[in-house]
């Protein structure tokens, strides 16, 4: 008797929906995938069943509203495994920048009736609210990441997270270091690989789309940025971007926001 198909759900919280495309962008490989898995909920693919019991629930988006929080708790109860996909779900994403600002003041400055807006005080990753079994980092995640992860699941292999630093990818591809040769403020030494070192391949500094790597030495890198001539606000902004709410990047952002430029000359 053939093994039953793995049942999947793809849930969206506060996000742009870009990471879900890692499923749909597989092309012909998606047809092969459908021979081994069954989607029971995937709105972007036209399949609706948010309360279905599934083997694996993929979650895109940050927890930014009361509705997000309730949906996250519900899908956890309905799923054997929960996998967060993308920057928003893993660390709060771009919208987590509001955690570092006066949110009510922003709302009052933009909306005529901010009292109609129903949000939580912060925008955070899913793991801060429910148990998460695996994380796929990236902004967005790639088709290759999704294929590799699903292949491991279907083979019964414990998926292993990709936490290697981007600098290792540059070395494998024999790419010239943009920080050494151009003085570019590259986050490669503290960011995990996943994109194939795309930006450095074109002579540009990495902006950290795939989040902090394992054991990132952000203090040392930030000090190097200061040595390259970046003022404290610019250093803070390098870390306060896509993964601003991740612990190591949040720490650096706060550290350099408190430094007066005159202190660097002392």
> Strand content of the residues, in percent?
5-15%
Mean pLDDT: 93
Widest sheet: strand ordering = 2-1-3-4-5
State Rg.
20 Å
CATH architecture of the largest domain: 3-Layer(aba) Sandwich
Helix content: 25-40%
CATH class wording of the largest domain: Alpha Beta
Question: Number of helical segments?
Answer: 12
Low-confidence stretches: none
Task: Explain how this protein is built.
The chain is globular and about 60 Å long. The chain has 266 residues and is of the alpha/beta class. The chain folds into 2 domains: 6-154, NADH:ubiquinone oxidoreductase-like, 20kDa subunit (Rossmann fold); 166-265, no CATH class. The chain contains 12 helices and 5 strands. It has a 5-stranded parallel β-sheet, sandwiched between helices. The longest helix has 12 residues, at 66-77.
Provide a short characterization of the protein structure.
The protein is α/β, with parallel strands linked by helices. Helix 11 runs antiparallel to helix 12.
């Amino acid at each position: 008797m053939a093994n039953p198909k793995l049942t999947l759900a793809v849930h969206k919280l506060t996000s742009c929906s870009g990471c879900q495309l890692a499923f749909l962008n597989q092309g012909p490989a998606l047809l092969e995938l459908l021979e081994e898995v069954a989607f029971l909920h995937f709105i972007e693919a036209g399949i609706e069943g948010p309360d279905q019991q599934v083997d694996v629930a993929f979650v895109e988006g940050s927890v930014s509203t009361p509705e997000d929080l309730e949906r996250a708790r519900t899908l956890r109860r309905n799923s054997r495994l929960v996998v967060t996909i993308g920057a928003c779900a893993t660390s709060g994403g771009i919208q987590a920048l509001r955690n570092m600002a006066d949110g009510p003041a922003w709302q009052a400055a933009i909306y005529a009736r901010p009292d109609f807006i129903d949000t939580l005080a912060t925008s955070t990753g899913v793991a801060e609210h429910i148990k998460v079994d695996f994380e796929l980092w990236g902004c967005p995640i790639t088709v290759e990441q999704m294929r590799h992860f699903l292949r491991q699941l279907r083979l019964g292999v414990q998926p292993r997270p990709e936490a290697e630093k981007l600098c290792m990818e540059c070395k494998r591809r024999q790419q010239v270091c943009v920080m050494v040769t151009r003085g570019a403020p590259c986050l490669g030494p503290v960011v995990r690989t996943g994109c194939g070192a795309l930006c450095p391949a074109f002579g540009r500094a990495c902006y950290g789309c795939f989040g902090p790597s394992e054991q990132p030495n952000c203090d040392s890198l930030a000090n190097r940025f200061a040595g390259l001539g970046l003022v404290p606000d610019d250093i803070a902004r390098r870390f306060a971007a896509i993964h601003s709410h991740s612990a190591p990047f949040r720490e650096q952002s706060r550290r350099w926001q408190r430094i007066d430029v005159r202190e660097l000359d002392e």
